[in-house]
Amino acid sequence: MTYAVSEIRSAGRRRKRRLSHAAIEPWLYLSPAIVLLVVVLLVPLIVGISYSFRKFSAFKSEYVGLGQYQAMLSDQVLGQALVNTLWWTVASLFFQFFLGLGLALLLDKPFIGRKLVQAVVFLPWAVPSFLSGLTWAWLFNPIIGPLPHWLYALGLKAEPTNILSDPATAMWGPIVANIWFGIPFFAITLLAALKSIPSELHEAAAIDGASPWQRFTKVTLPFLAPTIVITVMLRTIWIATFADLIFVMTEGGPAGSTSTVPVYIYVSAFKSLDKGYASAVAVLLLVLLIAYAVALIAIRRTLVRHV
Amino acid sequence: MASVTLQHVEKDYGSLRILHGVDLEIADGEFVVLVGPSGCGKSTLLRMIAGLEEVSGGEIRIGERLVNDVAPKDRDIAMVFQSYALYPHMDVSSNMGFSLLLKKAEKTTIDTRVGAAAKRLGLDSFLGRLPRQLSGGQRQRVAMGRAIVRDPKVFLFDEPLSNLDAKLRVHMRAEIKALHHQLKTTSVYVTHDQIEAMTMADRIVVMHDGFVQQVGHPLELYDRPSNIFVAGFIGSPGMNFLPATVSKGGKADAVLADGQKLRLPDGLPLQDGDAITVGLRPEHIQPAENGALKAEVEVVEPLGLSTQFYVRIAGQQVCVFVMGRSTIRPGDAVRLSAEPAALHLFDPMSGNRIG
Fold this sequence. Notes:
The complex is a heterodimer. Chain A is an all-alpha fold. Chain A has 2 domains: about 1-50, no CATH class; about 70-305, MetI-like (MetI-like fold, Orthogonal Bundle). Chain A is about 75% helix and about 0% strand. Chain A is built from 13 helices and 2 strands; from the N terminus they run H-H-E-E-H-H-H-H-H-H-H-H-H-H-H. In chain A, helix 4 (about 75-110) runs parallel beside helix 8 (about 170-195), helix 9 (about 200-210) crosses helix 10 (about 210-240) and helix 12 runs antiparallel to helix 13. Chain B has helices at about 40-50, 90-100, 105-120, 135-150, 165-185, 195-200, 220-225, 230-235, and strands at about 5-15, 15-25, 30-35, 55-60, 65, 75-80, 155-160, 185-190, 205-210, 210-215, 240-250, 250-255, 260-265, 275-280, 285, 295-300, 305-315, 315-325, 335-340, 345. Chain B has 8 helices and 20 strands. Chain B is an alpha+beta fold. Chain B is elongated, with a radius of gyration of 25 Å. Chain B has a 6-stranded mixed sheet with strand order 6-7-8-3-9-10, sandwiched between helices. In chain B, strands 13-12-11-14-20 form a 5-stranded antiparallel sheet. Chain B folds into 2 domains: about 5-235, Rossmann fold, CATH 3.40.50; about 240-345, CATH 2.40.50.140. The interface of A and B includes residues 205 and 225 of A. Chain A: Belongs to the binding-protein-dependent transport system permease family. Chain A: InterPro entries: MetI-like, MetI-like_sf. Chain A: Keywords: Cell membrane, Membrane, Transmembrane, Transmembrane helix, Transport. Chain A: It is a multi-pass membrane protein. Chain A: It is found in: Cell membrane.
């Protein structure tokens, strides 16, 4: 660097060339990664966003400015899809997280047959979402599946009908399938975080007089907090954009009762062939999720100081 | 404050016996150090006193109270861990006041006691910091502070200085000693470092393979080790051991492997021809012009204050410790002498001290 400084002091014209050379050099080294990122990430994103300013018909497209966004404001189906997305995401996440945490806590304690239980717990993760969607759809079907009959026997339903065919209950079908599908994710990540807590901390807390519940809330939870925040954030985004299960099980029906935003985007783009509108809705979803992630990261900064 | 009594305490892990009936009486206010190589059971014993390990057999009493089945929090003890085990998400004052908070103590009480402990340990200005913002020595102090704040009957230390660098270790050693002098709380301190044991203990308990080898005042252990293990473990540089045979022509001599003779003290229960192991502290074997032992110098280690030689006698390497400096060079032939009274004799079969 002293070399460069002396160069700068000595000659005006050469200085400029030197400086620009020094400024460009690091970018040259970074260029393969940058090119890759631009081609794979940025270009499709920009093309997708640019679609949202156009209207597509069979053989041509035209620029409509913010027309698609104005149309969104008065779209009641979209409003319903947003409400459905919120419900779908919150319900799935809530049960996935608490059941996953419970499983992780159980698997953290030694018991006979733990290895086997662990393997079984992590199994749903390995099943393709398409297949699990089909299986769950069949389980809810009263002709071939047992679930409606069990619900009827328990008195939870007046008749053993398919909950997927009733707009009032249809959303619970994909949600249950999604809970089953997502528990392993939380169980694996939280179990890993639990294993990283030094045993001395629990021993020190035990000597300090903490009850098992206090040890959980004052030692275990603060330790898990960073993992919880990051996994909840990732999982929320994945669930909110996850359309496979819903599409396989209900295709967004009946009567749009299970149509979430991703399902609506898919239907708009490939059923209604309104690619411009689908892109505008996708941009909306992107903005909402980015806002959510930013909010969660801010919460993490204030709550979790010790990392 | 209270005494701690161990009566034939045993610990098994499945079929593996870790502790073989430990008996120990720790007086009120005493500072006892459990020392031994790793795997000797010293930490397990400490954790049993803390209530972190179940007792397989025998009785543990704190004061008059049998605590075998008492939960750690009800034993009125405090423990300092090797890793300090500070709560990483709590600042220093919360770490120190956590036990009082759990006891639902008044906030003013907590603040007073945490403040007093922090002042005593020089932590006043760090109370708002998180453990990760502290140096190793400061963290160690916070761990001590957390123990002091509780004002327990017994302090338990599990190798608390092992994670510090050598200089800080010496400093904290003195600090813990001074603290014990002020508080006079019964303390049990586990270490593998015999120098820590020698410098800090009122009494040392030497352990090996789950057995207590010897219990006593540091210098008592140094001067009259009851077996070869204690003799070799206590003292640095360590004691030299030479195999020999007893020869009783007139006065008793120990005949070394190469035929050289060492005069033995009188009045020992020895028979002609007995095999013995002679133990010699490095400072008790000194160069002398008319010394009885001939040796060749192999290594010279000048330390300024003192000089250590490694010489070969009867095929064994022997350490010789001399105060001051020396002109002796490697390769020199020297004569050495040892006072008969300074010899330690052991039975090579059992390892036990003779006389």
